[in-house]
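The pair is quoted verbatim as follows:
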Amino acid sequence: MVAFGLNALYGRYQISADGLWGGPWNSSNARSFIQYTVDHGYKIYAWEFGNELSGSGIGARVSATQYAADVIELHKILKDIYKHSHDKPLTVAPDGFFDPNWFQQLLQQTGSNVLNAVTRHIYNLGAGVDKHLTQKILNPQYLSREATKFRQMQDILQNYGPWASSWVGEAGGAYNSGKHRVSDAFVNSFWYLDQLGMSSTFNTKVYCRQSLIGGNYGLLNTTTFAPNPDYYSALLWHRLMGKGVLSVNIIGPPYVRTYAHCAKNDTGITLLAINLSNDTNVDILVSSYPNSTMHKRSLNEKDSLIHKIKKYLAWAGSKTSEVTDYRMEYHLTPKDGDLHSQTMLLNGAVLELTEDGDIPSLDPVMVDAGLPIAVAPLSIAFVSLPGLEISACVQ
């Protein structure tokens, strides 16, 4: 699928020193290009209006009132050009940084059923030159800050645009190309997978990673085109996490972050567990009942006091059956224990392209379902539980 971004500054002029641009959008260039794609049979999934012009903007900004008028103009153009087409593309905007008041005004002034998706950018780790990127990624309180914006976006859509869905149109963690040995290393997968999990819990329908190729935050190495660790993290997410999002509430240490979805193309559920602690193993016990127990133990045998931490899987209105006698686990760790390594291990095996240049097989380990799920310090685990039947996942 292709979503194409359109120049939303064409025809405008700067009207103030603080970067405000005014005047109506000149749509002639966009209309000609859109018509060209239709005439040549190119299928476009969505037309996205503008880039980083919302709120205070980046280099330039446009008022929400003017932007809304121009989005309506784009919507009319698409209705006209695609009036005889079976497949009609989505109208998407503004693809900028989140400003609650600006986004609310945009939805109020465009009116119902004009915008199909509302997009925003996320670079919540700050600049790529920041020397504290790793510390931010491993700080659960810092990671959780973005939940406020996800929640605000969800509330705005529910109140002012229930016909539209929420998208993350661009996210790279750290802006200005990210940082070498952070954005392209194992440590970034803590941020990336946490973002995918968090965004899903707030009903975000699309999450676009910046970028596939380009900059330190690319999923592929810009020289060799070999996958960076986040590529494999994204691939496992894509293969294992279904569309049904389940609520997970934990009473326990904040460094353990978990997300659960209905399994993709399978029965049961898939659990994503992220352990941000550098010295504590986490054991998760999953039973066939809503309540389960999680234990933690110190790596230091002298500090081996075990205490129970209640973990509640809030399957609202659900019903579970007896768990089968096995589960499938995918444990991700960095090579040689180096968080800044660009090599990821899956269940202890190096993930690298085959001699033919193909993606390696991503095989799980089969584990007795009665044993606790052991998540090592500073590691990530996907766990498929095929025998855990949740009513929300039954099709």
Summary: Residues 64-81 form the longest helix (18 residues).
